[in-house]
Each structure stands twice: as C-alpha cells, then as structure tokens.
Write a structure and sequence with these properties.
The protein is α/β, with parallel strands linked by helices. 64% of the residues lie in helices and 9% in strands. The structure holds adenosine-5'-diphosphate and magnesium ion (MG). The site of magnesium ion (MG) has 3 residues, from α14.
C-alpha cells in the first residue's frame, strides 16, 4: 500500500481534477445502484398476477414513509399496486424499463465524466516525469554516463515511463472509483440483509489473499524485463550509429546473434510475465463465483421454508447488487498486478531522478565576470574511479597566464584530455584545485565558469538542425550578420554559401551531410561566435586530411588570436609557436618550455619531434 501512495505523490499537482473525478464517480455509483435496484419493482410486477395480494396491499392504504428498506419496499409496493389497478401491468413495466434506461444513461454519463478528468492527470503525471528525467539528464555529470548504457537511459525515459503511466492509471481508478462503488453497494446490501453481507465480507478477503500471492513475484520479473529492454535499445543505438563499421567488417552475423539472444531472453521473460498476469483474471473469477454460490445457497435457504426471512424478489435484487461487486473487486486485483509491474519501473526511473549530482554549483558562489590574470592547476591529482590503482593525473602544477597559448603534448593515454576536462568542471580533481584569478573554480557557478570557455574537440559535436542554429547553438538573439561574420573567421562561409539553402541547410544527424573538415569549421564558427576569453582545443585537427587541416588550422589561428588557449595537439608542427609546451607522460608533466628550449634539451619532446619529422 505504501508504494501505491508513492506513485500517488505524482498526482499532487492535479488535485482539482482528482476532486472532480471523485465527484463524478460518486454520482455514477449512485445511479448504478438505482438502475439495479429497479429490478425489485420489476420482479414485483412480474409476479403480481395474484390479485388477492394486490387487494391486500391496497386495502392497507398508503403506508407511512421512513428511510428504512422495509418502508421503502412497502411504499414501492403500494405505488405499483395502485398503478396496476389504475392502468395495467404492461403499462407499469414500460414505465420501469424507461426509468432503468434513464438511470443507466446517467450512470454512464457520469462515469465518462469521471474518466474525462482522469485523462489530464494521467498524461500530466507522465509529462512531469519525462520533463524531470530530461532535466536531470542535463545536470548529471559526464562521469555518470561512462558507467551507464545510453539505451538503458532512453528506455527508462520511454518504456518505463509508459509502464508507470499504466500503473498510475489503474491505481488512480482503483483509489478513486472502486472504493466509492464498493462502499455504496455494500451499504445497500447491508440494509437488505446484514446476515448475508457479513458472510460475504468474511469470505471475500480470503479469496483476495490467494490472488495476492502471485503478484509478489511479478515485480522481479518486470525489473528483469526492463533491464533487457535497456540492453536491446543499447544494441540498436550502437548498431545504428556504427552501421558503416558493422558492414565493413562483415559483422552483421555477430551483431544479429547478440541481438537475437537478448531478444529471446526478453521474450521468455515476457511469456512468463503474461502467463502470471493472465492467471489473475480466471483465478479471481473462480474465487468470486465460489463465494457467490455460497451466498446463493445460504440466501436460498432464507427464502425457502414456511417462514421466509426474505422475499424472492428482494433476494434476486440482492444477488444482482452482489454480482456488481465482482467487477470492481476484479479491477482491484488487476490494478494490484499492474502496480507491482509499475513499481519496478518506478524504481528504475527514480534511480536516475535520485542519482547524485557530483558536480554542482557552490552554495554561495563568488562572482567572476572577466578573466583577468591567470589559470592555475595546483597539486591536481585525479582518478576516474576511487578504487583505481594509480592516478590518471598525478600532482599537476601549471600556470597559464592570460593571453598565452599553452600546448599539451604526449603519448595517447597520458592524460591530456582529462586535464583539459577539469577546467570546465566536466570532472573535479580528486585532490588539489584549479584557480582562475585566484578563485577556486568550485566557488563560481557552472554557468559563469563555462561562459568563459569555448571548446573544440576532435569529434565535432553537431546537431540535426540548420547550419545557422548549429553555429548559434545555446545563444539568444543572434543576428544573421553575426553568424556570417563568425563563419567567415572560421573559413566556413564559402562552403556554406554554396549550399542549396545556405545557412538554413539542415546538416543531418550529427552533421553527417558535411565532410569532416566542414564539420570542424562549423564547430569553430560556433566557438568564434561565443567569443570566450579561454579556448580549449582538444586535437581539433587530428581527424582531418592535410588539405582541410590547413583550412581548419588557419581558422583556429584566427580564433586563438587575443585569447588564452589550452591546445592539445597530436602533430607537433601545429604548436611550435606556442608560448609554452607541456610534455605529459603517464599523468605527469615531464618537460616544459618553448619549442627551441625543449629541442635543445634532447629529452622526451625531442624524441617525439624526431619521430614525426620522418613522416
Ligand atoms: P589523452 O587525451 O592524453 O590521450 P586521456 O586523458 O583521454 O588521455 O586518458 C587518460 C587515461 O584515463 C587513459 O588511461 C584512459 O584509459 C583513462 N580514461 C579516459 N577516460 C576515461 C573514463 N571516462 N573512464 C575511465 N577511464 C578513462
Ligand atoms: Mg585525448
């Protein structure tokens, strides 16, 4: 039960709709009751051919009216008898039938109105949840994603949220509608025969217990099923992204086998889950009917005999009411199963929503609007995972003065990218700190910090949108002239203006309609437009051929002018003119100085340099 209220928490913002829903459900239940209760006069008329009985009733005169079942029945009987006397039985029957139609119509009208107000709650809850997850995805640090599958996160956002939608819906119906219906029906049944109703109340929970047993294992199956969905999505996502390589390496068979295996596991789980859910309906029907038959026997005994405790018409009406209890009781069990399934999804979604945001804004941030003096790495050490043996960065000390270009070189895996990632706080140092103008970067807001920086990486990150929007990405009120100006500096204007729709051309997923060099120049134009004082270039030209490298390098040189730059370069020729070159090895700075000084030193830099000169 506690878990059901957990889901209901999401409904908080929609209480107005909830109240309307309850109101209409109440009305619907009342009219439903009326329509069934009409069975009683109907039966009375059918069996009233005994004219002596009619005369008896009429002779007694109009009975007094109290709010008690006996009095109500006496009054109905008197009313019917006088009506039959005045017209005939058929006339009365027509009247009753019309009355039933009207009450049934109203019952269903109110039922619909009840549903009408559930719809915005149900969809609103799902919308809120999706928004919350997306918001969370944006604030979670990059480190979160190296440990998670992308497909799994996507499946949490889609499949799990949909699952919750269903379980929320059924729990809402259960909580708002069924108790109202059950209460009203039970109350009128009590008034008709408290003995029978007490018996039913003892028997029904026993049936409920049996049904509840199966629900337990359902949640576990559901969790596994959702995990498998996540893996399936991951494989699909990776395959779509890497189709070129899959085909080139003839890996279709392997990928297919991998997919089919998970898909089979998934199917087996689903078959198990379906069978268990499907059991709920026959089981609850069997239990329900068994209880019904017991009541039938006990009630029948009360009607038979020389001194019947109940009339046949009353008993049949009672049974009709009782049969109406079975539907809500059944939806109660279905809801119970659904909620068990939904809870597995709730847990998966909550795992994202409650994930710790390791990199956050400081509580009382200091202001740093302009970058004036220098960036300083102070005793910085870092490991991606706590338990890891050995640091990825080990006790780095480095000062970068404003306006200078600092180059990071060294073997692949020596920690250059990691070191650059610390500056915009993609990762925080495990030890030590980074200061800008003497202020720790943890003491300023992420927005302030990142507004100081422009980043161009080896893989250009572009979005499926127009060239204009890709260049103006993340900025507001950008004019066309500004975008063109930036594109010109980035050597991108020429190829863009030759495109069919110029700046309004869509560049496809991740920009796949452009060549590598073009993509990179668009990324550079984006950095130019942002006009940040600090630049981070991580192997920005490494993936390019010599011809486009020349264009991109030229664009980069223009971009770096009058800025402070941290340049990671694979090809040493591109950073010869840097103010300072830092040579890294296994997470440590092993040499540091200008090109000429380092060459003269005959050390690691010289070795790297000589290796490349042969190429
Ligand atoms: P470089 O840019 O100099 O080639 P990196 O900074 O990318 O080197 O990597 C330094 C080391 O950190 C490598 O040994 C690499 O395996 C490891 N590493 C990089 N990224 C991650 C990550 N997200 N999770 C765990 N280890 C990582
Ligand atoms: Mg790198």
């Amino acid at each position: 039960m506690k878990n059901i209220f957990g889901i209901l928490q999401y409904v908080k913002g929609y209480w107005r709709f909830a109240i309307l829903n309850i109101l209409f459900n109440l009305l619907s239940a009342v009219f439903g009751l009326f329509s069934i209760a009409m069975l009683f006069p109907f039966l009375q008329v059918l069996f009233s051919d005994d004219s002596k009985k009619l005369q008896d009733i009429l002779l007694k005169g109009k009975p007094q009216f109290h709010l008690s079942p006996a009095s109500i029945m006496e009054n109905i009987n008197y009313f019917l008898a006088s009506d039959i006397q005045a017209h005939d039985s058929l006339h009365v029957l027509i009247g009753i039938c019309l009355f039933i139609i009207v009450t049934i119509f109203l019952k269903n009208l109110f039922r619909y109105l009840g549903m009408f107000f559930i719809a915005p709650i149900r969809n609103g809850v799902v919308k809120d949840m999706r928004n919350n997850i997306f918001k969370k995805i944006l604030v979670l640090p990059l480190s979160y994603y190296s440990d998670e599958r992308k497909g799994d996160i996507m499946s949490r956002m889609t499949a799990d949220v949909r699952e919750i939608e269903w379980s929320v819906l059924s729990s809402l119906e259960m909580v708002f509608r069924e108790p109202v219906t059950i209460f009203i029906y039970l109350l009128s049944m009590f008034l008709m025969s408290w003995q029978l109703t007490t018996l039913a109340l003892v028997l029904l929970p026993i049936a409920g217990l049996v049904i509840g047993r199966i629900g337990k294992s359902l949640k576990k199956t559901s969790t596994e099923e959702k995990e498998k969905t996540g893996i399936l999505m991951s494989i699909m996502d990776e395959t779509l992204g890497g189709l070129r390589i899959v085909k080139a390496f003839n890996a279709e068979k392997n990928v297919k086998q991998k997919f089919e295996k998970i898909n089979n596991d998934y199917t087996n789980l689903m078959v198990k889950a379906y069978r268990r859910v499907d059991l709920s309906s026959p089981l609850s029907e069997f239990m329900g009917i068994t209880v019904f038959v017991i009541i039938l026997y006990v009630g029948g005994k009360m009607v038979l005999g020389n001194h019947p405790a109940m009339s046949g018409a009353v008993f049949i009406t009672y049974l009709a009411l009782f049969s109406q209890l079975i539907a809500p009781a059944k939806s109660f069990t279905t809801a119970y199963y659904n909620i068990q399934k939904g809870l597995a999804s709730t847990e998966r979604v909550n795992k994202i929503l409650n994930a710790e945001v390791a990199i956050q804004d400081p509580k009382s941030p200091k202001t740093l609007i302009n970058f004036e003096k220098q960036i300083e790495y102070k005793n910085v050490s870092f490991a991606y995972r706590e338990a890891e043996i050995g640091w990825v960065l080990n006790n780095i000390n480095l000062k970068v003065e404003k306006g200078k270009t600092i180059a990071l070189v060294g073997q692949s895996g020596s920690g250059k990218t990691t070191m650059a990632d610390m500056l915009p706080r993609f990762y925080d140092p495990s030890q030590g700190e980074i200061l800008i103008d003497g202020i720790g970067i943890k003491d300023i807001t992420l927005a302030d910090l990142r507004s100081l920086m422009g980043i161009v990486t080896q893989e250009s990150i572009l979005f499926n949108d127009t060239l204009f929007n890709n260049i103006a990405f993340g900025m507001e009120n950008v004019t066309e002239a500004q975008v063109i100006e930036a594109a010109k500096i980035a050597n991108a204007h020429e190829f863009i203006s030759q495109m069919p729709q110029g700046y309004q051309t869509n560049i496809g997923d991740r920009g796949n309609k452009l060549s590598g060099g073009q993509r990179q120049r668009v990324s550079i134009a984006r950095a130019v437009l942002k006009n940040p004082p600090i630049l981070i270039l991580d192997e920005a030209t490494s993936a390019l051929d010599t011809e486009s490298e020349r264009l991109v390098q030229d664009a980069l040189n223009k971009l770096m002018k009058n800025r402070t730059s941290l340049v990671i370069a694979h090809r040493l020729s591109t950073i010869q003119h840097a103010d300072e070159i830092i040579v890294m090895q296994k997470g440590e700075i092993i040499e540091q100085g200008t090109h000429t000084v380092l060459l003269a030193k005959n050390g690691a830099y010289r070795k790297l340099h000589d290796l490349q000169s042969f190429v």
